[in-house]
């Protein structure tokens, strides 16, 4: 991760909420949240429909490196994050957690970040093992999703 991205990441408060999403919160997110890809996190555009098609930055974590090469995979990860209920303390907008996290079947951690071209949209990316939050998310995921 580059110096600018590292500084921005440190400035972005990321803390896991003490309680998972309630059933009501999950239902709200299933009905109102969606996935929107970001060109910065893609080496190859796949079927994400991005403009520009891809604009990978060296300081960004790339979805391609975690084998998320189709929109369907990314949307399924977001749905699994909602079902898992592991979210941040902060809100991006009322009812929408600023971050949500999911651990896939291979142990890769992904972060969904609120903010897109319209309300309710998230973009996501893999979190590198070197990120201090990686292990914290894995432990929290295992506690909540055993």
Task: List its traits.
single chain, about 150 residues, two-stranded antiparallel sheet, 6 strands
3D architecture notes:
With 146 residues, the chain is of the alpha+beta class. The chain has one domain. It is 32% helix and 17% strand. It has 4 helices and 6 strands. The strands form 2 sheets. A 4-stranded mixed β-sheet has the order 1-6-5-4. Strands 2-3 form a two-stranded antiparallel ribbon. A hairpin with a 5-residue loop joins strand 4 and strand 5 (109-114). The longest helix is centred in the middle third of the chain and has 14 residues, at 71-84. 32% of the residues are buried.
Give a nutshell description of this structure.
This protein has helices spanning 3-11, 23-32, 71-84, 132-144, and strands spanning 34-35, 91-93, 96-97, 99-103, 109-114, 121-127.
Q: How would the blueprint of this fold be written?
A:
Layout: H1 3-11, H2 23-32, E1 34-35, H3 71-84, E2 91-93, E3 96-97, E4 99-103, E5 109-114, E6 121-127, H4 132-144
Parallel strand pairs: 1-6
Antiparallel strand pairs: 2-3, 4-5, 5-6
């Amino acid at each position: 991760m580059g110096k600018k991205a590292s500084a921005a990441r440190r400035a972005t408060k990321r803390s896991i909420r003490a309680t998972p999403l309630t059933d009501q919160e999950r239902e709200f997110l299933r009905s109102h949240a969606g996935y929107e890809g970001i060109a910065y996190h893609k080496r190859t555009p796949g079927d994400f429909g991005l403009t520009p098609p891809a604009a990978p930055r060296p300081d960004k974590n790339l979805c391609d490196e975690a084998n998320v090469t189709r929109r369907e995979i990314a949307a399924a990860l977001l749905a699994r994050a909602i079902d898992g209920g592991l979210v941040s303390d902060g809100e991006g907008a009322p009812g929408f957690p600023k971050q949500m996290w999911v651990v896939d079947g291979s142990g890769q951690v992904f972060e969904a970040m609120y903010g897109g071209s319209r309300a309710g949209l998230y973009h996501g990316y893999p979190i590198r093992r070197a990120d201090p939050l990686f292990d914290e998310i894995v432990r929290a995921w295992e506690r909540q999703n055993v």
